[in-house]
Write a structure and sequence with these properties.
alpha/beta; Spore Coat Polysaccharide Biosynthesis Protein SpsA, Chain A; 7-stranded mixed β-sheet; two-stranded antiparallel sheet; globular
């Protein structure tokens, strides 16, 4: 079984008021649909995804129930309350996947709710990689020169951008490995920067597969304009 956990419990702290009023970016309207609709749709229509779990803020439950009913999504099996941090939210989703029957050998796809432009090919490719390596993610090549700087703002070195990939989602982890990685991080009070970093600290190798530059995490208002132009 391939199960997608869509993480949409963030606070959108880096977003500024849009169109004169504050708004959670996942509910920003694009072609009369909220941004999160397009994210869910990517997994809803993918033939290799059997179940979807949504991890959201408690205050958004009513909005999501309405969206699911109106959009007639069929694969959403559970809606889970998010945690204090993204990692907590991902773990909440992972625990629910176990309740829904996930077992050793199954693949769990962790995906940001604000990455609406993920392609069907990217989902298929990262699933294929995870089947072989047990953990995989999509990433984009760095297009610009990368500089490492000291605290005083002076450059210490130029990093070879051929060795740099920018992590995006989906990030896919085999269920038993994900459970072990998240439980160990919780026990040791470790906070990773993304999902697969918890696997990396177990000494496991993680496969990265190419992602389109379109597959961005919407973070700033200008990102919404880009998404609008692509849908």
């Amino acid at each position: 079984m391939n199960l997608a956990i869509i993480l949409a419990a963030g606070e959108s702290e880096r977003m500024h008021p849009l169109r004169g009023y504050p708004i959670d970016k996942i509910f920003y309207q694009i072609k009369k649909k909220p941004l999160i609709f397009y994210t869910i749709l990517a997994f809803e229509k993918h033939p290799q995804i059997e179940k979807i779990i949504l991890v959201i803020k408690k205050t958004d439950f009513k909005n999501f129930f309405s969206l699911i009913k109106k959009s007639k999504f069929k694969k959403i099996e559970a809606i889970v309350k998010g945690g204090k941090r993204r990692q907590d939210s991902a773990f909440n989703g992972l625990k629910m996947s176990g309740n829904l029957g996930a077992k050793s050998g199954d693949l769990i796809l962790f995906h940001n709710g604000c990455n609406p432009l993920v392609s069907q090919k990217e989902i298929a490719n990262v699933i294929q990689a995870a089947k072989k390596y047990k953990a995989a993610l999509v990433g984009q090549p760095a297009r610009d020169t990368i500089k490492e700087v000291a605290k005083n703002g002076l450059i210490t070195r130029t990093i070879d951008r051929e060795k740099i990939l920018l992590a995006q989602t989906p990030q896919v982890i085999e269920y038993s490995l994900a459970k072990k990685a998240f439980e160990k991080a919780l026990q040791e009070k470790f906070e990773g920067t993304d999902d697969v970093s918890l696997v990396e600290r177990l000494g496991k190798k993680v496969k990265i597969v190419p992602a389109s530059f379109k597959n961005i995490k919407v973070t700033y208002p200008e990102d919404l304009k880009f998404v609008e132009s692509q849908l």
